[in-house]
Design brief:
This protein is α+β, with helices and mostly antiparallel strands. 30% of the residues lie in helices and 19% in strands. The chain contains nine helices and 15 strands.
Length: 328
C-alpha cells in the first residue's frame, strides 16, 4: 500500500523552518510526499462514479465534498507549502497506470482542495516547447525549451499565484531538470552581506507586459511595477517576485533602463539564488508533481531539446490561497 509520512496537518517542528539552504532541505523528508493508499482508493472509486470527467475536467464539477481523504491530503500539502519548507515533491501517481486525462483530473482535484484555481492562462496550462523564443517575441518562457534563470511565476502586477504546481506528463531525455532556490534564504544572506543591494531590490521595478491578450502600452507598462522583495501588504508575509529579463525589458521600453547600481543589485541576487549551497536540482518522472510557494521559492529549469518520440510536457496550475490560512 502507498503511504505518506506527511499527509495530515501537524504542529510546527524545528525542521519546518522555511529559511533552508540546499543541504538542509535535502536532509529533510517533510517536503517529499507519496500518495496515501486511502487517497488512491478514494480516487479510483471517484473515477468509477464519474468516468466522463477524466476526458473533459471542468472546474465547476470539482469540489472536495466527494473526496474527503484527498481534501485532507491537500490540506496537509498546503500547510507545508505555506508554513513549512515551501516545496512539495509528490510521487505515486505514475504507478497507478492512469490515462493522461485521469492524471490531470486527480491533479486538478488536488488543486481545488488546496485553493482557488486561477484561470488567467486557463484552468490548466500546458508547459511545452511551442517553437518560439521569448527574447524574440513577448511570450512566456514556459512556451519555449529555453533555460530559465531563477524566477517566480507571473510578471503581472494584479496576478500573483500563491502556489504553483507542475505535473510531469512526459520528462525530457535531454535536459529539462527542475531547479529550486529559497528566496527567503537569499534575502537574509543579502541583509548581512549586501544591504545596499537589498535596499534597491525592495524598491519598485517596471516589468514588461507579456500575458497573452494584454496590450503592452506605455501606460500599462508604467502601471506594471512592484518590488522584488516586498514586506507583504496583503497579510501573507514577505513576498518575492522576480524574472530579470522582463524587468530589463520593461525598464528599457519606458525609456528608463536599469542603472549600474540596479544591475549590480540584480547580479548579486542572481548569484545568491544560483549559489550551489542554495540550489536543489530535481528530475520529475512521469506522474510526479512539484509544488512551490510562489511568494518564497524561486524556481527555474535547465534548457531542453525535444526529439522524435520525446516531447517534454508538464501541466501547470496556479492557486490562490485564503489570506488567513491555518495558523502554525
Amino acid at each position: 500500500m502507498l503511504t505518506s509520512s506527511v499527509a495530515t496537518p501537524r504542529r510546527r517542528r524545528a525542521q519546518d523552518n522555511p529559511i533552508w539552504n540546499a543541504r538542509l532541505l535535502t536532509g529533510r523528508r517533510d517536503w517529499r510526499y507519496t500518495l496515501p493508499g486511502d487517497v488512491v482508493d478514494e480516487f479510483v472509486a471517484y473515477l468509477r462514479a464519474h468516468p466522463e470527467r477524466a476526458d473533459h475536467p471542468d472546474l465547476a464539477d470539482l469540489d472536495c465534498e466527494e473526496t474527503p481523504q484527498l481534501a485532507e491530503f491537500g490540506l496537509g500539502l498546503r500547510r507545508g507549502l505555506l508554513h513549512g519548507a515551501g516545496v512539495a515533491w509528490v510521487r505515486g501517481l505514475g504507478a497507478l497506470r492512469l490515462s493522461p486525462g485521469e492524471q490531470r483530473l486527480f491533479y486538478m482535484m488536488l488543486g481545488v482542495c488546496m485553493g482557488r484555481v486561477m484561470t488567467e492562462y486557463g484552468p490548466i496550462f500546458c508547459v511545452r516547447d511551442r517553437g518560439g523564443y521569448y527574447k524574440k517575441e513577448a511570450i512566456p518562457v514556459s512556451m519555449t525549451g529555453a533555460e530559465t534563470g531563477f524566477h517566480t511565476d507571473s510578471s503581472a502586477v494584479d496576478t500573483l499565484p500563491d502556489l504553483v504546481g507542475l505535473l510531469c506528463e512526459e520528462p525530457s531525455r535531454e535536459g529539462g531538470h527542475s531547479l529550486i532556490s529559497n528566496a527567503m534564504h537569499a534575502y537574509w544572506r543579502l541583509r548581512v552581506s549586501a544591504p545596499e543591494a537589498l535596499e534597491l531590490l525592495e524598491k519598485e521595478f517596471i516589468r514588461d507586459v507579456v500575458t497573452p491578450g494584454k496590450e503592452s502600452t506605455d501606460e500599462s507598462l508604467r502601471r506594471n511595477r512592484f518590488p522584488i522583495f516586498d514586506g507583504g501588504p496583503e497579510g501573507k508575509g514577505r513576498t518575492f517576485r522576480y524574472m530579470r529579463y522582463w524587468i530589463e525589458q520593461g525598464q528599457e521600453k519606458v525609456g528608463s533602463p536599469l542603472t549600474e547600481r540596479q544591475r549590480a543589485a540584480l547580479d548579486v541576487l542572481d548569484e545568491t539564488l544560483a549559489s550551489p549551497e542554495n540550489v536543489v536540482r530535481l528530475h520529475l518522472e512521469r506522474g510526479e508533481q512539484l509544488w512551490v510557494n510562489n511568494r518564497r521559492i524561486a524556481h527555474g529549469r535547465e534548457g531542453y531539446a525535444d526529439s522524435p518520440g520525446n516531447c517534454r510536457q508538464l501541466q501547470r496550475l496556479w492557486l490562490e490561497t485564503p489570506k488567513t490560512d491555518i495558523g502554525p
